[in-house]
């Protein structure tokens, strides 16, 4: 893929991640007319199950973050010789990033399309982990402080395992969202988002690492043969 391909892919996936995670966080703050309605929340009412909303915020937002991190990392590794030129240039084609306003613009892009989704995923993880887990229509209850989604409790009597708001205690297990089977939840809730976080962090570190002589040789070779 060339620089243009990587820039387009990163902009598509990162914007999707920002919009979804921003809507999720707004929902968790009480704006239930957004993502909360997808999970049975009533518009204009307090969120009944923040843990459930946050759970799917991590799974979907984390997946988008992983998809965005791959072209971002490749762009940082392959293109540009200083930090502001290594960040993909989105929307303002031809901008001189070496100018102070260009650097400011690239820094803002980094905050909005890289830092914001990372913060959103981490925030949703924290909220989801606080939720209680229960077996639907049964008397098997697990408090958020006593379990973890890294290895969620398995069904004892073959019913759905549901994630609901923290502090639900011994209330009948009729609400909440169904969580993935035990082996799938760690994969989609932890492995995929954390891999996206790790690749993104790696790319951010590489932004400030000086290019070695070999990079300039390769660029000159490619320019001479193109």
Automatic annotation (TrEMBL):
Keywords: Membrane, Transmembrane, Transmembrane helix. The keyword Transmembrane helix applies. The chain crosses the membrane at residues 12-32, 52-76, 104-128, 187-209. This is Uncharacterized protein.
């Amino acid at each position: 893929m060339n620089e243009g391909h990587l820039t387009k892919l990163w902009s598509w996936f990162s914007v999707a991640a920002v919009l979804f995670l921003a809507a999720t966080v707004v929902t968790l703050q009480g704006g239930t007319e957004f993502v909360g309605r997808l999970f049975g929340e009533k518009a204009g009412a307090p969120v009944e199950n923040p843990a459930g909303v946050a759970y799917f915020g991590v799974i979907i937002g984390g997946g988008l973050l992983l998809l965005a991190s791959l072209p971002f990392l490749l762009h940082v590794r392959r293109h540009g010789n200083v930090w502001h030129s290594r960040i993909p240039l989105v929307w303002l084609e031809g901008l001189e990033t070496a100018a102070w306003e260009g650097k400011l613009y690239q820094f803002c892009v980094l905050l909005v399309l890289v830092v914001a989704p990372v913060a959103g995923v981490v925030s949703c993880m924290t909220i989801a982990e606080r939720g209680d887990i229960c077996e639907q229509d049964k008397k098997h209850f697990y408090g958020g402080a006593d379990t973890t989604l890294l290895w969620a409790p398995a069904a004892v009597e073959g019913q759905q395992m549901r994630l609901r708001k923290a502090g639900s205690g011994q209330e009948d297990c009729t609400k909440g969202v169904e969580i993935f089977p035990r082996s799938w939840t760690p994969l989609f809730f932890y492995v995929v988002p954390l891999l996206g976080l790790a690749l993104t962090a790696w790319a951010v570190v590489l932004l400030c690492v000086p290019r070695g002589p070999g990079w300039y040789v390769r660029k000159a070779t490619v320019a001479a043969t193109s």
